[in-house]
Design brief:
With 373 residues, the chain is α+β, with helices and mostly antiparallel strands. The chain is built from ten helices and 19 strands. Strands 1, 2, 7, 8, 9, 11, 12, 13, 15 and 16 form a ten-stranded mixed β-sheet that branches.
Length: 373
């Protein structure tokens, strides 16, 4: 997989300006009572059943218990819009979901006027990314951050994030957190100042802390120079490719993480557009997200998907690879059951085999080579 592993020496944010702001030392995890005080109330109508209500209220926003078996956390559910003034973005934020997640889960529903009485799918079920379950893991294609707190090993936290748009792509690699800054100042990069000047809107050299600061109220610096995990003064954009390379979070999520994330925590920036994992009942699920263009290179999405499924299955597991292909070709984040109690039989007479898809990939490459010749 041809993915960039080189980091720019200087990124979009001035480290010197950040260091000039008030700094904080490592924060310790909250107690259970403190977490309960900080956890937002979750309306009864926001969950699918009384059982789910009880389970959700036991933990703060974004917190899930790691499964004893398997790779899946959370549950998808539906709500009904009861406020005609509420947007789909408002609903997404309240339920810890990002822009693209809520959009893909509700095709055909207006982002700005979903309408009173409309049923909205909340896709709050996740396959844990294929990475060691330690520290912070950011899956770029998924636009989601996972945190495995070392002092609470039975818990995983997950939050929607924004990452760099294509011309300012967030790099891939392993780094760590360094300094945490409360109420940071921000220095627009030279390129941004030049662009603003060309539009006749000169940008300031420094934006002080406050409502106009795009870093929000909390910033966690990374050992990768000038890249940060931070808040935002434009939360409507969380969950899309909208930054200049940094990781943006909802203000309430970065505040919570800032208070509990120790300095020196490992941060794994990875790009896994296709995920596969087992549910506790023995169902094999997959999820697929749009591939980031800058990480395509010689990457073959279908072959990668087949490899991920093969790594989790044994020869006696009869997987319908047509569903794998369908998920790759329609990357919308939805759960697809390949095998087990929740899998539905395919409408085709015979399920597609692994070998037939590999032959299809090979033929596609041969045709491409002939066209290039």
């Amino acid at each position: 997989m041809n993915i960039r592993h080189k980091f720019n020496l200087w990124g979009p944010t001035s480290l010197a300006v950040l260091l000039a702001a008030s700094l904080t030392g490592p924060a310790y995890a909250q107690t259970a009572s403190e977490q309960a005080e900080n956890a937002p109330a979750i309306a009864d109508e926001s969950v699918a059943s009384a059982e789910q209500v009880a389970d959700t209220r036991e933990l703060p926003r974004g917190h899930f218990r790691l499964p004893d078996q398997g790779d899946i956390i959370g549950e998808s559910y539906t709500i009904t819009v009861d406020d005609p003034a509420e947007t789909l973005i408002d609903i997404a934020r309240r339920h810890n979901i990002g822009y693209e997640e809520i959009r893909m889960a509700n095709p055909g529903v207006s982002m700005w006027v979903p309408g009173e009485g409309t049923e909205i799918v909340i896709p709050a079920q996740y396959i844990l990314p294929p990475a060691p379950r330690e520290g912070v893991v950011v899956n770029l294609s998924e636009l989601r951050l996972y945190y495995y707190p070392a002092d609470n090993p039975g818990i995983v936290e997950t939050y929607p994030v924004s990452v760099g748009r294509e011309e300012f792509a967030t790099p891939v690699g392993i780094t760590r957190t360094t300094i945490k800054v409360k109420d940071p100042a921000w220095a627009p990069p030279a390129s941004m100042r030049r662009e603003a000047a060309a539009r006749g809107e000169p940008a300031p050299s420094v934006v002080p802390a406050g409502p106009n600061n795009p870093l929000g109220e909390h910033a966690i610096l990374l050992a990768m120079p000038s890249y940060l995990i931070h808040g935002t003064n434009r939360p409507d954009g969380v969950g899309m490719r909208a930054s200049r390379g940094c990781i943006r979070m909802y203000p309430e999520d970065i505040k919570s993480l800032y208070e509990r994330l120790p300095s020196g925590t490992q941060v794994n920036l990875m790009d896994a557009p296709f995920k596969a994992g087992w549910a506790a009942d023995g169902t094999l699920f997959v999820q697929s997200y749009p591939q980031l263009e800058e990480n395509v290179g010689d990457f073959e999405p279908l072959l990668d998907a087949i490899d991920r499924v093969d790594a989790l299955t044994e020869d006696q597991v009869a997987v319908d690879y047509a569903k794998v292909k369908s998920a790759v070709e329609s990357p919308d984040g939805r759960f697809v059951a390949l095998y087990g109690p929740q899998a539905q039989p395919t409408v085709e007479e015979e399920p597609a085999s692994r070998n037939s898809l590999l032959e299809e990939i090979e033929l596609s490459h041969l045709r491409a080579a002939e066209e290039d010749a």
